[in-house]
Design brief:
This protein is an all-alpha fold and 375 residues long. It has one domain. Helix content is 71%, strand content 0%. It contains 21 helices and no strands. Helix 12 crosses helix 19 and helix 13 packs across helix 20. The radius of gyration is 21 Å and the shape is globular.
């Protein structure tokens, strides 16, 4: 009987408390949204299942949990805490990105820059709420709506906040169809949403080859701390456009990025142990993240309207919402909103130009914030 009671006392049923139950429900909801609603399933499915696995209670000291040295999950989590997985994801993202739409209408790059205002507004808000500068910087980057960038910066500045910040960043990326449309409708008129964009000019092969080389030099000279993200990103794009290493480019945008995404999502989810994750700070991070993402969306929309005051050929202000770096979710949502206003209004390629610019912009912002907090 003593052995039986000892066994029972070591089971998850005995060790569980309300925090584990809450996080298990969150994980199940994430899995449901990924499968039933198809909200960013490549992100929510591994994160949701990771949350479930990470919140199965266990007895300490046996090298089981993600925070226990020498456990399998701890070793897999190494790619998160060092920023390795985000860099690999950026390599694959670069190998998938087509910059022809951005080069075809370079002024759309300004919308990607404008959408980063949410980052700096949230930085000031987090500082005002008492977060330390390194913590405030990590929270602010959620406004870029870029999960890998958020994880990378947090790993460098506030590793203890990786769980809530990563979950917040990926949650808002997945909830773009719910968050962005009301803001688009609030800030733009129906007439503005009907503005049609002209056909993009044809971009030469030479331009596409020069862009990643020029881009990495200009961006990384401006923010050297962004090298771990933008270096692989532009390298992946150069492999794609060069046409001489198709096998490498194909591997980067499929097997490599898929592997990194699996481990990144699963281990980030597993890091949300209820006894570590559920606290007032996590709630504050989620609230600030929502504010950051909303302001980033609004900033892009408002800046597009300001640009139209000086442009002879007006741009559709909806494109400003795609300035966040949630690829391709925000671009898709902009396109769908344009179609609802006018079934013949196709904005996808123009929105992707803003979207790809937002990826670069958020990585530069991360580099700037990291450099501010060095030392």
């Amino acid at each position: 009987m003593e052995l039986l009671f000892q066994f029972l006392s070591n089971t998850g049923y005995y060790l569980a408390d309300y925090r584990h139950v809450i996080m298990l429900i969150v994980g199940i909801v994430f899995v449901y949204l990924a499968i039933a609603k198809e909200y960013e399933p490549l992100l929510l499915l591994p994160i949701g299942f990771g949350i479930i696995v990470g919140n199965i209670p266990f007895f300490k000291g046996f090298g089981i949990g993600i925070y226990e040295a020498n456990s399998v999950l701890h070793y897999l989590y190494f790619g998160v805490t060092t920023g390795l997985y985000p860099s690999i994801v950026f390599l694959g993202l670069g190998a998938m990105t087509d910059f022809s739409s951005l080069l075809g209408n370079p002024k759309l790059m300004l919308l990607g820059a404008a959408a980063q205002m949410g980052i700096f507004f949230t930085l000031l808000s987090a500082l005002g709420l008492g977060f330390l500068p390194n913590e405030a910087s990590s929270i602010a980057i959620i406004g870029g709506a870029d999960g890998p960038t958020s994880i990378f910066l947090t790993a460098k500045l506030a590793p203890e906040l990786i769980g809530p910040i990563a979950i917040a960043a990926y949650s808002y990326m997945a909830l773009i169809p719910i968050i962005q449309p009301p803001i688009m409708k609030l800030i733009t008129t129906k007439e503005e949403r009907r503005i049609k964009m002209p056909e993009l000019r044809k971009v030469s092969k030479k331009e596409l080859l020069f862009f990643p080389v020029v881009g990495v030099v200009l961006c990384c000279f401006l923010a050297p701390a962004s090298i771990p993200l933008l270096g692989p990103f532009f390298f992946g794009n150069l492999m794609k456009e060069s046409g001489v290493v198709d096998r490498l480019a194909q591997t980067a945008r499929t097997a490599i990025v898929d592997t990194a995404t699996i481990f990144l999502g699963f281990t980030v989810g597993a890091s949300t142990q209820g006894d570590v994750f559920l606290n007032g700070r996590s709630v504050g991070i989620f609230a600030l993240g929502a504010v950051a993402f909303s302001i980033a969306t609004a900033s892009g929309l408002i800046f597009a309207k300001i640009m139209n005051l000086f442009l002879k050929n007006k741009i559709n202000p909806l494109l400003g919402a795609a300035g966040v770096s949630a690829v391709p979710g925000s671009a898709r949502e902009v396109h769908l909103m344009g179609l609802k206003s006018d079934p013949s209004n196709y904005l996808l390629m123009h929105a992707m130009a803003c979207n790809s610019s937002g990826v670069i912009g958020s990585a530069i912002c991360a580099g700037i914030l990291w450099s501010f907090n060095i030392g």
